[in-house]
Amino acid sequence: MLFVVLEKLDVKQMRLLLLLLQKRSLSKVALALNVSQQAISMQLKSLRMIFDDPLFVRDGQGMTPTAHALSLGDVIANVLSQLEQAAHPAQFLPEKVTATVVISATDYAQYTVTNRLFFRIRQLAPGIKLIVKELEIETLSTSMASGQLDLVVTTPAFLSDNLPYAPLFKETYQLVSSAKLPPKQLTHIQALNHYDHVIVSPSRANLTGSSQSWFEAQGVKRNIVAAIPHFSMLVDYVSNGDVLAYVPSKMLPNPGLREIHLPQQPPGFEVVVAWHPSRSQTPLHQWLVTQMQAITAAS
Questions:
Q1: Would you give the DSSP letter of residue 112?
Q2: Domain extent listing, the chain
Q3: How far apart are CA 188 and CA 178, in angstroms?
Q4: Per-residue pLDDT averaged across 236-247, rounded?
Q5: HTH lysR-type domain location, by residue (predicted)?
Q6: Contact of 200 with 227, CB cutoff 8 Å
């Protein structure tokens, strides 16, 4: 009976229902899809008529899904996954694929992964067009669920628990100063207390930094004078200034930066590629993930 009802739905309605189950707010879904709240309300009315169920009940915090709505979630996700698979040939031939792929990544992930992915695509699958977007952490899960994003290159800390991912590589940090200034003779980590610092903070606008607790455990309280969203900007801040900073090692060497080696180093981070569960078995996505892993393994 359920699959008979599902035949009345189009793909957009299925994606909308999944998004409503995730966000549980008409206004948030409308914002994510860039449409009016009235349009979402009308779509929800249609869904209620199709399933003969309220699906969502208003409460003080937004909307609570009914038991029937919750049971629909896994079924619809599975249907969408099967549709994705059916849209691709059994034998995946990258040189014959025509598609547009949207990837979200930080500037660092673009530098280390998506830039080289572009050239690999041009060589192996010229029919694939690539759109790279800045990483927007606040809307990441919503964009993945609605199909606006195909893949995201980031760290696991920025991913919701329901998003599968594959590891690409592990990165370490390196302390740097401007190459224009005389070399700094630092012999212990506490010496950092005597300098000004710049950090990259893509997820939150503050002067703390992701490794703050580690530095405090080492007896270091950095005087952070600027927090910026991109590592590409950081290079300019350091090379033309009098500040210190930690940059990912893969961004070095750089003619404008001088490396400073200390016995202790802050913890690094893992870079992964993630996708929505409904796309896990899509041949195109599997091929793209494989290419990213090959690119990063060779670097």
A1: I
A2: 2-86, 94-167+271-298, 173-267
A3: 19
A4: 96
A5: 9-66
A6: yes
Q: Tell me if 2-86 shares its fold with 173-267.
A: no
Q: How far apart are alpha carbons 286 and 45 in whole angstroms?
A: 36
Length of the chain: 299
At the top level of CATH, the class of 94-167+271-298 is alpha beta
173-178 vs 245-248, strand pairing mode: antiparallel
Q: Which residue do the tokens 């699959």 mark?
A: 3
pLDDT of residue 214 exceeding 80, the answer is yes
Amino acid identity, position 211 = S
Give dist(CA 293, CA 168) in Å, integer: 5
Token output for 111: 């530098």
Is CATH 3.40.190.10 correct for 173-267?
yes
Instruction: State pLDDT tens for residues 40-66.
Output: 999 999 889 888 889 899 887 788 888
Instruction: Identify whether the C-beta of residue 176 lies closer than 8 Å to the C-beta of residue 257.
Output: yes
- Residues with Cβ < 8 Å from 262, sequence gap 6 or more? 175, 186, 187, 188, 189
DSSP state of 239: H
- Expressed in angstroms, the distance from the first to the final Cα of the chain is 53
> Token match 């530098």: residue?
111
Report the C-alpha gap between 133 and 106 in whole angstroms.
8
